[in-house]
Amino acid sequence: MKVLQINAVNKLSSTGRTSYxxxxxxxxxGIDCCVSFSKGPTTExxxxxxxxxxxxxxGLFSRxxxxxxxxxxxxxxxxxNFMDEYMPDIVVxxxxxxxxxxxxxxxxxxxxxxxxxVAVLHDCWFFTGRCCHxxxxxxxxxxxxxxxxxxxxxxxKSWFFDKSRTMHKDKKEYFSSxxxxxxxxxxxxxxxxxxxxPVFENAKEITYIYNWINTDLFKSVDSDNLRAKHNxxxxxxxLAVAASWSSEKGLDTVKEIGDRLNENQRMILIGRLxxxxxxxxxxxxxxxxxSAEELVKYYSMADVFIQPSLEETFGKVSAEALSxxxxxxxxxSTASPELIGDxxxxxxKVGDIEGMLENINxxxxxxxxxxxxxxxxxxxxxxSMEKNLIKYTELFDRLTG
Length: 401
Description:
This protein is 37% helix and 18% strand. It is built from 13 helices and 13 strands. It has a 7-stranded parallel sheet, sandwiched between helices. A 6-stranded parallel sheet has the order 10-9-8-11-12-13, with helices on both faces.
């Protein structure tokens, strides 16, 4: 069997690491797998789609036209030529909204060649007109027909035109043209949402397989030197992580929690902040990092991890924190509560900062060791790389017969 993954990135960020890890696992288990990607390092078993100039031009045309995924024709034709040589039995579609692929050409090829296709939902873009998330906007038009999009200035911004209706209609035609289509969501919540999407009415199967965590990497390690570096030897440490902080990611929540820390508490806030953001002097902002090893040290150092986001299709940073033995506090929103097992943290009502503070202080009042074993066990049971990749290979077998 040959498997070709198509993703915006390789070995970068969560989806890039997931693509790379699937490729490494399948190739080591006798299944030929290649990652085709736009950005990131070229690794063994990979194919680079287009170049940086093409991506920039695609992004410009996308903003001018309001349509994303309709450009990069040469890069996509080159990919199709590569696919003709590689002859994949399965194509795994991941994040395609990175201004690097031409959807009409790609889906026409998959349909004509009758290639078994797995659409992995890392966010909601595949089944909406244009947005990656919609719960904060309270927009559910994708369940019938997208139009008059309330989020034209988010995600891949449109400067002039609202093409959400056209893109939603086209996506339905694209996915309906595939006779061997399976849809994999990365959480139960997202699976349930996908079953309501007319875009996937032709799918043979809509299921969920959790993202996996590399438990050999994400595990508790000594963090005394890191505590000393930040002068936190005698402090209780709260940790929150995002690539870029925004209101949807919970910036207002972490700011308020930071303002209300006592003398014995400190917060580490990893990620880019909007210009002009003011933080309490008890909050330490750290630049985002692509180093998993560095993140492991921060996860291990923390006494509690805060997940304040209102829109998470999975929430990999929460799972990584749990894998390092750190309990998690989150809001009861989208997929976040699925990641909190018994004695692994606490779930607060959406927007209830008082309740979140109570849960945080309750956890901090105990020794972290009272949670760590259960956190780790929950990850090994639900987010095991081996177990979840076996689920993928079983799905591939079902789809190809």
